[in-house]
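Message: I would value a second opinion on how I read folds in token form. Give me a protein, with the fold worked out from its sequence. Write it directly below this note and I will take it from there.
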Amino acid sequence: MQIESIDHVVVPVRSLEASGEPFERLGLKLTAETRHRGRGTSNRVFFVGGESNEFNVELLGVHDAEFANPLYTGAIERGGGTIARLMLRTTGIRGTIEKLARHGGASVLEQVAREDGTPICEVAEVQGAYLGFPAGIIQYAEARGSAHARHVASGLLGHRFPLKRLDHLAAMAPDLEAATRWWGEVLGVPVFGEVRAPGIIIRQLKMGDAILELLGPDGPDSRLAGRPAGLSSMCAFEVDDLDAAVALARERGFTAPDPNKGILPGTRVATIAAGELGGLGLQLLEYV
């Protein structure tokens, strides 16, 4: 059993066309709409990264609520546009399911296919008392290298905005110590590092070359004390030249702020606000 990488985030939306517009205006290439057989959903996706670290943001629409996952229909009813689920890529999905079941998180393996029946992947829900947000595991029918080569050949990595790779996602843990143990013992993802700042503890869990940050308060007076568990609706992407990326975002109609020193040591950041991208914040991060 192995979690190979952070694969993608699922962002349910009311309209795939309208929700894709700001990402395309920013300069990102999105796939055409793909319908999922028997699931009542369809998606548009943008990919970032190389063969070994490809990650995607999945904008997910619902065209038949009778067959769609209630997690997604509920998210759309609440307005949509924010991350509803984190998906983790595994090399042995059945073994992962068995491990989860031994820890009280029984999951059902589901098949996902295109409308013509072509297999896309197998997925299963991740369940755990200390998870704190919806997550799933995924294993693709197509090999990673083949899929990436196909995406490159079809121009899907030919963005006009310089996102290099996913750097990190962040989640407020229901109990930081218990959540850290759960990720290590159940999913085999140990702590990679820890960062402390006033009022906050960040436990870094590395999967592939991207990080899931588990956040917790450093004491009862922390600004995070009492905050509910959940996944932040923001993706942090590395860029090579933050100033140039900010300037480009502004040229395309976004109000990206001036870069500031990041919480992570040796970084500068600027964030395109979630409200300008339909609900998903996009942090631009440069290592210096």
Remarks:
- The chain has two domains: 3-153, 165-287.
